[in-house]
Amino acid sequence: MTNDKEFLEEEREEGTSSMDMDQDETLKEGEVEEDETESLRNQLIRLQADFTNFRTRARKAEAESVGLGVEKMAEELFPILDNFEIALSHIDDQKVHEGMKMIYDQLLEALHSKDIIPMDSDGAEFDPNKHYAVWVEEVEGEPSGLVIETIKRGYMRGEKVLQPAMVKVSK
Q1: Which residues contact 143 (CB under 8 A, 6 or more apart)?
Q2: Which residues lie closer than 8 Å to 133 by C-beta, 6 or more apart?
């Protein structure tokens, strides 16, 4: 009987220790699963942030590309606008002048809708970033460095000069 009691006690101890080992393994597996879950959650958060950054860069690149296309097209229209201005200054027939002026204004409005505006240079201080001096003239009563006449109009998009104005400057 003693042997039976000892045997039962040993069995109980072994059972308890094997139960403890099973519980320990279950706890360790749970911790591993939590670690894996946390790792996957962090990876997902990083991937979402990366995708958001990519989408932002792609939109910015697309906007820049469209802007460059608009600027290139506008640069091809500038000589046409210059020719309209020359033609308008030489037309005597009032009805023809009005018709040409309407077309000219439509072209300017189309450019304005793409944020391209003509520069107002007359009377402004000469700025080599915006103006191209083709003539310097001494004018009494005028300070030096003022634009006294615009020979060819300049255009800007925002702060960017697309075509500098050709101007006559006071000396």
Answers
A1: 170
A2: 126, 167, 168, 169
- Placement of tokens 């107002």 in the chain: 120
Name the DSSP class of 117. Answer: E
Residue of higher predicted confidence among 21 and 35: 35
pTM over 0.90: no
As a whole number, the mean pLDDT across the chain is 85
Please compute, for residue 32, the number of CA atoms within 13 A of its CA located in the half-sphere on the CB side.
6
What is the C-alpha to C-alpha distance for residues 72 and 114, in angstroms, rounded to an integer? 12
Q: Which amino acid is at 102?
A: M
C-alpha angle 5/11/28, rounded to 5°?
150
CA torsion angle 151 157 159 160 (round to 10): -70
Rounded to whole angstroms, how far apart are CA atoms 136 and 144?
10
∠ Cα 164 165 166 (to 5°):
115
Angstrom distances, CA of residue 6 to CA of 2, 10, 60, 62, 157: 6, 6, 80, 82, 97
